[in-house]
Design a protein that fits this description.
By secondary structure, the protein is α+β, with helices and mostly antiparallel strands. It has 14 helices and 13 strands. The protein starts with a helix and ends with a helix. It is a multi-pass membrane protein.
Length: 420
């Protein structure tokens, strides 16, 4: 009987224990693969998220919040700034391109973003639309590929938006003091009137889909784009009341970005933020969370190694007489040693293959949920050098876990093995 066939029969003889060991290895590998794919996707998505716009100008507040809302369509904007800021930026000699952005509304949870059509040429080059044409008039929209796919939108469809970037829910279970009841009721009544007015404004303003963007593999896939003046049209704002949410700036040089930041930052409630710095802060926060996950991963690896070790120790205890008989029949110590190490590697390799498949399957199942929440896509078909290290590390763990029990059998005399 060949070495591989003997090893396979030994593994199948202890089906339950072998299955538990394979599961331990598979779960550990799949967790590491999913973590690796997620980390690579976050880093790649963060780099692609803001394109050539190294500077963003908005209302004072958190720089991270401003950048996440502007480029990744996450969270609420920090506020509005005067429209005159756009003119001031446009006159700066250090600016190559500058585009105003207005946000604050949504359609079925997807943000409605008002921005000049030139943004797409600057950001993505001369890529053609999947269908239709770019918007030219107030109320016309182009939608991201993910939005079109999720909501089933096509050219010519019409819809109305809603105020806010997320669906607002009333707080339940709050206790109101009796003395403040009248004031609270008055505020609530005023808020209801305001909300009712906003809902009426939004219901009366109709959007028309005139184009669908190609798949861009960026947060823009999950946004609805229209003209900058949509917010002013929805709320019937006079010219002196018009404001914008942010200005996206592509500077001529880093020096130009620095000078513009020095000029605008902190003046009249306006802030200028370096996009790359804000994104780096977010990635640093993610890395800190990854360290904790890394500790949990190390524990999983340790448990998988212990599982392999215990499985082989149990095999040694069960097959002491069998190994002794093999030695008396003339099989060498090396053959006995290879039998046990091959068994450990076979179990490990099986768990490794299953784990790789499960990890990529998990990425496939989670990609839509991850993209809808963070605007970053996980590529379940992506293979990197990390996979090679995962394969090599897993096989090494299986080999090292096999050495102890195999060496124990290797050292004993065949008569001692048989008598025991």
């Amino acid at each position: 009987m060949s070495l591989f066939r003997l090893t396979l029969r030994n593994v199948l003889h202890r089906r339950f224990l072998s299955l538990l060991t394979v599961c331990a290895v598979a779960i550990t590998v799949s967790f590491i693969v999913l973590l690796s794919l997620s980390r690579d996707s976050v880093e790649e998505g963060a780099k692609k998220g803001y394109g050539p716009f190294d500077l963003v100008i908005g209302a004072e507040g958190s720089e991270t919040q401003l950048v996440l809302n502007t480029f990744y369509h996450i969270g609420a904007p920090t506020g509005n700034i005067p429209l005159a800021v756009l003119d001031q930026v446009g006159l700066d000699s250090g600016v190559d391109k500058a585009y105003a952005m207005t946000t604050g509304d949504n359609y079925n949870g997807f943000p409605v973003v008002g921005i000049d059509p030139g943004y797409f040429m600057t950001r993505y080059g001369d890529r053609k639309l999947q269908e239709g044409a770019i918007y030219a008039h107030t109320g016309e929209t182009i939608v991201g590929s993910y939005v079109a796919q999720t909501l089933g939108l096509k050219i010519g469809d019409t819809f109305t938006g809603a105020h806010g970037l997320v669906q607002e829910e009333s707080l339940a279970g709050e206790e109101i003091e009796h003395d403040d009841f009248e004031d609270s009721a008055a505020v609530e009544h005023e808020h209801e009137d305001e909300v009712a007015g906003e809902e009426h404004d939004h219901k009366s303003f109709l959007y028309t889909v005139v184009g669908i963007l190609p798949t861009l593999y960026s947060p823009d896939d999950r946004a609805v784009f229209t003209t900058v003046d949509y917010a002013w049209a929805v709320h019937n704002l006079a010219e002196e009341e018009r404001e914008i949410t942010a200005v996206l700036v592509k500077p001529n040089s880093l020096l130009g970005a620095h000078n513009l930041k020095q000029t605008l930052d902190g003046s009249n409630g306006v802030q200028a933020a370096y996009t790359s710095k804000a994104v780096s802060d977010v990635l640093n926060a993610v890395d800190q969370g990854s360290r904790l996950i890394g500790v949990l991963t190390a524990l999983c690896i340790l448990l998988a190694a212990i599982s392999i070790l215990l499985s082989l120790i149990a095999a040694v205890g069960e097959r002491t007489k069998d190994v002794g008989l093999l030695r008396l029949l003339g099989k060498s110590r090396a053959y006995v040693w290879m039998t046990l190490t091959t068994e450990g590697l076979l179990i490990t390799a099986t768990g490794l293959i299953v784990g790789l498949l499960l990890g990529h399957l998990g990425a496939f199942l989670l990609k839509d949920a991850f993209f809808s929440q963070a605007g970053i896509q996980i590529d379940p078909y992506h293979w990197t050098t990390n996979h090679g290290w995962i394969v090599l590390g897993t096989l090494c763990i299986g080999l090292f876990s096999s050495l102890g029990p195999a060496f124990r059998m290797y050292r004993l005399h065949p008569l001692a093995l048989f008598k025991s």
